[in-house]
Design brief:
By secondary structure, the protein is α+β, with helices and mostly antiparallel strands. The protein has two domains: 6-83, 2-Layer Sandwich (Phosphorylase Kinase, domain 1), CATH 3.30.200.20; 85-226, ATP-grasp fold, B domain (D-amino Acid Aminotransferase, Chain A, domain 1, 2-Layer Sandwich), CATH 3.30.470.20. 30% of the residues lie in helices and 34% in strands. The strands form four sheets. A five-stranded antiparallel β-sheet has the order 1-2-3-7-6. A five-stranded antiparallel β-sheet has the order 11-10-9-12-15. The chain has a three-stranded antiparallel β-sheet with strand order 8-13-14, covered by helices on one side. A hairpin with a 5-residue loop joins strand 13 (180-184) and strand 14. Helix 1 runs parallel beside helix 6. Bound molecules: guanosine-5'-monophosphate. Residues 90, 92, 98-101, 129, 175-177, 203-206, 218 line the site of guanosine-5'-monophosphate (5GP). Residues 90, 92, 98-101, 129, 175-177, 203-206, 218 line the site of guanosine-5'-monophosphate.
């Protein structure tokens, strides 16, 4: 499977065509951005960590019955994934207050929530991924009511699975972001089959070491906390079980 034309370049990843129109290569870069790309930098070997962590978590979720775009890890920095039509929404699930929710409600970080909080955000860098509700999505035609119900149910299932996964590794899953897409069929058109896409990595989750609450995620970069590379490597070690 040779790497073909560049289809899309985002802030942290590049998508390349493959010989199969239904499959693409997702390549992970070391580039790091925060606050809608106002802050830019590099996290050395982040692409390697995020590719390996995402590959392991997608494989784990598939074993738990969650369909994803993941096909297989190809090399250090890339994975083979199903081609998707990405739904222009970001789902956030929160278990402990932090970041956007702490700011939105004026509450401190680190408060355990009585039940998980599900949020829809419109995927737009220019607007800062604003918080929206179901009515915005239906009114704009970004997804159907059936799709929203499906994504919500899948997201809670993913939260349960990931919380258990990280608990065993002495990490609290504070919150995370997910993206879903419609699988592109052999005719090149989107099907009704919705799967989890994008990545699941320390770039897209908040992970706190149990007990110490040491941050093991992108907040180290966003907030200039130092030891960013070490934190990413620590997550990789724990995800792969080499503790
Ligand atoms: P918050 O809304 O608190 O900023 O983010 C909640 C969670 O979703 C965090 O784990 C954060 O890393 C992730 N997240 C939300 N939006 C984005 C985004 O645009 N890019 C990335 N990489 N992660 C995001």
């Amino acid at each position: 499977m040779s790497r073909g034309d560049k289809l899309y370049e985002g802030k942290a990843k590049i998508l390349y065509a493959t010989d199969d129109p239904a499959l693409v290569t997702q390549y992970f870069k070391d580039d790091a951005t925060a606050f809608n790309a106002q802050k830019r930098g590099t996290i050395v070997d982040k692409g390697i960590v995020n590719n390996r962590v995402s590959s392991a978590l997608f494989a784990y979720l598939e074993r738990q019955g969650v369909p994803t775009h993941f096909v297989k890890q190809l090399d250090e920095r890339s994975m083979l994934v199903k081609r998707l039509e990405i739904v222009p929404l970001e789902v956030t699930i929160r278990n402990i207050t932090a970041g956007g929710m702490a700011k939105l409600l004026g509450i401190e970080e680190g408060v355990a929530l009585k039940s998980p909080v599900f949020e829809w955000h419109y995927k737009s860098d220019a607007l800062g991924d604003p918080l929206i509700n179901d009515d915005h999505i239906l009114a704009m035609g970004w997804a159907t009511a059936e799709e929203l119900a499906h994504i919500r149910a899948e997201s809670f299932k993913i939260n349960d699975a990931l919380k258990a996964f990280f608990r065993e590794r002495q990490i609290d899953l504070v919150d995370f972001k997910l993206e879903f897409g419609r699988v592109i069929g052999p005719d090149g058109k989107p099907t009704t089959h919705l799967v989890l896409g994008d990545e699941i990595s320390p770039d897209t989750m908040r992970l706190w070491e149990q007990g110490t609450r040491r941050k093991l995620d992108k907040d180290r970069f966003r907030r200039d906390l130092g030891s960013v590379e070490e934190a990413y490597q620590e997550v990789l070690r724990r995800v792969l079980g080499n503790t």
